[in-house]
Amino acid sequence: MAPEDTLSLPTLKLLFVGDSAVGKSSLLLRFTEDQFEPNLDPTIGVDFKVKQMVVGDLPLQLAIWDTAGQERFRALTPSYYRGAQGVILVYDVTRRETFGGLESWLREEMGDVMPTPKKERML
Ligand SMILES: Nc1nc2c(ncn2[C@@H]2O[C@H](COP(=O)(O)OP(=O)(O)O)[C@@H](O)[C@H]2O)c(=O)[nH]1
Ligand SMILES: [Mg+2]
Prior knowledge:
A four-stranded mixed sheet has the order 2-3-1-4, with helices on one face. The longest helix is centred in the C-terminal third of the chain and has 14 residues, at 96-109. It contains four helices and four strands. The model has no long low-confidence stretch (mean pLDDT 86). Helix content is 26%, strand content 22%. The two termini are 29 Å apart. By secondary structure, it is α/β, with parallel strands linked by helices. It is globular. Magnesium ion binds at residues 24-25, 42, 45, 66-67. This is Ras- protein Rab-18-B.
C-alpha cells in the first residue's frame, strides 16, 4: 500500500497495559516489525507504532500505544487512554501476580476512562 493511501484509512487506537517487564514492548515490536530484541531498554517505550491490516474486507490502520516505563508507578496519563478503541492487557504466564495485577489495572486505573469495557479474550 502506498503511503499516501494510508492517510485516509480508518485508524483505531489500541493500548498496551500491564505490569512492568511482562513483554508489552516486545509484543509490539514483534507485531509491527516481526523482530525480537532481547535487550530492549525498559524505559524506551514508543508513543505508538502504526500497522496496516485488513480485517474482513476493511483495510484499516492500528495505532498501538506502548508505555515508557510509567507503568512501574501505575502512572499512565489520561492522554494515554484518551480516544482508545481497545486495550490489550498483557501479563507474563510465568509470573502469576502479573495476571492478578490486571484486575486492578482495569478497576483502579481504567475504571473512569472506560467504565464498561467489552472484554475479548485473545490468548
Ligand atoms: N522468555 C521470554 N522473554 C520475553 C518474552 N517477551 C519479552 N521477554 C523478555 O522480558 C523482558 C521484558 O520485556 P519488555 O518487552 O521490555 O516488557 P515491558 O516492560 O512490558 O515492555 C525482556 O527482557 C524481554 O526480552 C517472551 O515471549 N519470552
Ligand atoms: Mg516496555
